[in-house]
């Protein structure tokens, strides 16, 4: 979920009459936390910019408000895409979309985004998840989604909730989680929540909106990898203008057993807010296995937003080799973190603006042997933001 507070529900555009929504918008033209040495298995560099496509805020499709896109993935078997919305059933039931992304021309650039369907996630009783307000405690906050290579079904992560009022009223505590699902939204198995991540009213566990934001699969789908958006309460403070923060990357088997857990060093906030008392924060929003056979090599998106300045989106290449495995209750303090290397600052791309990037996935292989990487933004259902798809080539 975005760091920004959700605005009032925007004015909605008229419903689309056609069954598919086709968007063909033309392409628009600090000090890091240690360690900064290149990962041992570094092989990547960003090549060509492959275009940008935007969906205006308030767009309607299939009886839903399009927006809140916080994760996406491509099914290599069907070449179709799945995209998750982080609407917590506030506007419509928590859901995912299916889509076609077209890559055309001599550069195989992103030329269109076509939504082809939308499906609510379903609870074990077959009903959609209710909103937080007036719900029954089963609310979810969807944040990322992947196609399971073993079954071609889905796996998705959700951040849960931790609301602890200061007035003595009862807290709202919903654990985060990772769940398998059928293509029709029916729930499957759920992975065990790492004990240190549970929602707790005390001084341990997830912070509100800082749970497992990123999700990927490694070791040919045998490992489920999640990345926390921010530090657990017991792992230290949130990042500041001068000091970064320590979050976690967790590797679990498909049955939920924790295999490894690593410390991820987040960057300090990149600028001062305007005005000085404005909002500013940052965190990890996506993780992606570089090679699905390699359980150590990842891409990580760090997103930061500063009032009066805007978004800064940075893509890092990450290697867990040599990092301390803190699974089993070890502390983050004193542990050797993963190694990270800046691969791309989206400010260096020919984009008119950079929005709130929260998801990334591999697209089709390219004729020159490089790979297509697609990123997507969460517009927070705000009239001042857009859903932004950005594609680049990675070699």
Domain module tally: 1
Q: Major β-sheet, in short?
A: 5 strands, antiparallel
The percent range for strand residues is: 35-45%
| Mean pLDDT over all positions | 90
**Which fold name fills CATH's third level, the topology?**
Tachylectin-2, Chain A
pLDDT below 50 for ≥5 consecutive residues: which ranges?
A: 2-40
Number of helices: 0
Give the helices and strands as they follow along the chain. EEEEEEEEEEEEEEEEEEEEEEEEE
Assembly state (oligomeric):
single chain
Q: Kindly report how far apart the N and C termini lie.
A: 30 Å
- Rg estimate, integer Å: 20 Å
How would you write the strand order of the largest sheet? 1-8-7-6-5
The CATH C-level name is Mainly Beta
Shape: globular
**Structural class based on helices, strands and sheet pairing:** mainly beta
CATH architecture term: 5 Propeller
What does this structure look like?
The protein has 395 residues and is mainly β. It has one domain (21-394): Tachylectin-2, Chain A. Helices cover 0% and strands 43% of the residues. It is built from no helices and 25 strands. It has strands at residues 21-23, 46-55, 60-61, 64-65, 69-74, 81-85, 95-104, 109-120, 142-147, 154-158, 161-163, 172-174, 177-181, 187-190, 212-218, 223-228, 245-253, 258-266, 280-289, 297-306, 310-319, 339-345, 357-365, 371-377, 387-394. The chain has a five-stranded antiparallel beta sheet, with no helix packed on it. The two termini are 30 Å apart. The model is unreliable at 2-40 (pLDDT under 50).
């Amino acid at each position: 979920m975005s760091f920004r507070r959700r605005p009032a529900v925007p004015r909605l555009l008229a419903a689309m009459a056609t069954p598919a929504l086709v968007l063909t918008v033309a392409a628009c033209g600090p000090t890091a936390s240690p360690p900064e040495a290149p990962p041992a298995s570094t092989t990547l560099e960003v090549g060509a910019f492959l275009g940008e496509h935007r969906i205006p805020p308030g767009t309607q499709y299939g009886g839903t408000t399009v927006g809140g896109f916080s994760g996406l993935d491509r099914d290599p078997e069907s070449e179709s895409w799945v995209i998750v919305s982080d609407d917590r059933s506030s506007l419509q039931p928590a859901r995912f979309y299916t889509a076609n992304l077209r890559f055309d021309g001599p550069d195989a650039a992103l030329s269109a985004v076509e939504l082809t369907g939308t499906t609510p996630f379903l609870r074990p009783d077959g009903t959609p998840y209710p909103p937080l307000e007036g719900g029954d405690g089963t609310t979810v906050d969807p944040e990322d989604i992947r196609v399971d290579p073993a079954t071609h079904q889905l796996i998705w992560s959700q951040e849960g909730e931790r609301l602890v009022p200061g007035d003595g009223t009862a807290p709202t505590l919903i654990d985060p989680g990772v769940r398998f699902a059928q293509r029709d939204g029916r729930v499957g198995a759920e992975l065990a929540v790492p004990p240190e991540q549970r929602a707790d009213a005390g001084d341990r566990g997830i912070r509100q909106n800082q749970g497992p934001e990123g999700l990927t699969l490694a070791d040919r789908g045998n490992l489920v990898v999640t990345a926390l958006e921010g530090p657990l309460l017991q792992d230290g403070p949130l990042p500041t203008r001068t000091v970064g923060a320590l979050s976690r990357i967790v590797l679990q088997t498909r049955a939920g057993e924790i295999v490894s857990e690593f410390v991820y060093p987040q960057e300090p906030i990149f600028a001062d807010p305007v005005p000085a008392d404005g909002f500013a924060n940052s965190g990890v929003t996506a993780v992606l296995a570089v090679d699905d056979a390699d359980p150590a090599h990842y891409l990580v998106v760090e997103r930061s937003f500063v009032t009066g300045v805007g978004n800064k989106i940075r893509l890092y290449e990450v290697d867990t080799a040599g990092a301390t495995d803190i699974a089993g209750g070890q502390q983050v303090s004193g542990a050797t973190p993963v190694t990270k290397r800046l691969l791309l600052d989206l400010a260096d791309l020919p984009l008119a603006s950079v929005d709130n990037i929260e998801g990334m996935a591999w697209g089709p292989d390219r004729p020159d042997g490089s790979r297509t990487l697609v990123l997507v933004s969460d517009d927070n259902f705000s009239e001042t933001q857009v859903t932004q798809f950005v594609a680049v080539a990675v070699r």
